[in-house]
Amino acid sequence: MITADDCIRYCAMEFYCPHCETKLSPCEVPPFHIGDGLGWGTEVFFVCLNDECPPFVKGWAHIEAQFGHVGSYRYMRLPNETKGDTMMVGNKMAFTGSILDPDAILAANTRHQQERAWVEEFDQSVIDKNTAPALGVLVDAKANKNHRKAACDILLKIGDISSYDAAASLTDLNPETENKVNILKKELLKKNFMRECPDCAEIVKAKASVCKHCKKTLA
Ligand SMILES: [Zn+2]
Ligand SMILES: [Zn+2]
């Protein structure tokens, strides 16, 4: 995966298709190279993704007649070469999934840095009884699985019942994380002398005889 800085640099480069004048799209190269067996020599190349581009329009019939299979040609050039070439594509969608998106890469980068900063604060957050770093990691669906599990341990050490709702609202967890979150919820209740109402699932005092939410009598 290319870095955010490289992505921005590539996206600032302007190359145009000699066949249709369309601005070429920077795309991440596929992990393999058909042909000479050498690498691409670059992590990004620039492709004309205009479906009206003449080599692309004419290519279908040409490849069908020449090779008897479905395909066409897209114009492409490498960033470090002065002239490009056409390359064969098997379908219309080829390369469209690998177009560089600086916003997406920047967002992924920012998220990753935030996660790392939170994890670094874990030890201190226990001393400060600050649930924010561990909660931040726990509710981030993209966070590392082990970091999320560690966040459960931190929240348990802090023991603040206010973490309960965030833990209870999590969905689509993998089984390992889910198990950890369930332990966290159970232990948080115990530590705070609370329990879940069997009727409405709201949190009530362990000693309460009536649920303050649904008014049912508690055993
Ligand atoms: Zn073109
Ligand atoms: Zn209730």
N-to-C order of helices and strands: HEEHEEHHHHHEE
How many domains is the backbone divided into?
A: 2
Number of helices: 7
Q: How are strands sequenced across the largest beta sheet? A: 1-2-3-4
Structural category: alpha+beta
Q: How would you characterize this protein structure?
A:
- By secondary structure, the protein is α+β, with helices and mostly antiparallel strands.
- The chain folds into two domains: 4-98, no CATH class; 102-192, no CATH class.
- The chain has helices at residues 4-12, 54-67, 102-128, 132-138, 145-158, 164-168, 175-191; strands at 25-28, 44-47, 72-77, 85-89, 194-196, 203-205.
- The strands form two sheets. The protein has a four-stranded antiparallel β-sheet with strand order 1-2-3-4. A two-stranded antiparallel ribbon has the order 5-6.
- Strand 5 and strand 6 (203-205) form a beta hairpin.
- Helix 3 packs across helix 4 (132-138).
- The mean pLDDT is 91.
- It binds zinc ion (ZN) (2 copies).
- One zinc ion binds next to loops.
Keywords summarizing the entry:
single chain; 219 residues; alpha+beta; four-stranded antiparallel β-sheet; 7 helices; binds zinc ion
What's the short version?
The chain contains 7 helices and 6 strands; from the N terminus they run αββαββαααααββ.
Reconstruct the topology from this structure.
Layout: H1 4-12, E1 25-28, E2 44-47, H2 54-67, E3 72-77, E4 85-89, H3 102-128, H4 132-138, H5 145-158, H6 164-168, H7 175-191, E5 194-196, E6 203-205
Antiparallel strand pairs: 1-2, 2-3, 3-4, 5-6
Helix pairs in contact: 1-3, 3-4, 3-5, 4-5, 5-7
One zinc ion (ZN) binds at residues 17, 19-20, 22, 48, 50, 53, 75.
